[in-house]
Amino acid sequence: MTIELYLPKDFLQACDIHYVQPEQMIHYFVTSVALAPHFAGMADEAQHLGTAFFLAIDAQHNRRRLPVPRLRNQFMDYAAIVVEAAADIPSAQERLELFKSLYATWHMELIRHISKDDAIIDRAERKQRFGYQF
Questions:
Q1: Which of 2, 50, 77, 101 is deepest in the core (most CB within 10 A)?
Q2: CA-to-CA distance for 121 and 110, rounded, in angstroms?
Q3: In terms of domain of life, where is this protein from (predicted)?
């Protein structure tokens, strides 16, 4: 997926002072966002910080009405059960697999039920990228 971004002066200044390419820093951030490891307690420091930043900014700035609210409510309820169950699983790898399964299923169902004309999510691109067969 290719996107165009406006990079503010403060960000460019920070990149220049730390001698890092802006696209490299953006890449580091986007590859650090990982819900399953974060919630399974298996995130490394970068994943923890990147995911926490993502969730904080989303909570602070995302005021859009979410698509398929029934599905979101259903998975939020299920996520609460998964979080509770995960606390009793001693194996970190098993906790990670549980959260990966939760988010993979949630995502697939979202893409399955979202409008093909949604303004934010390109349903056809996501189906192809994730290999969804519906």
A1: 50
A2: 10
A3: Bacteria
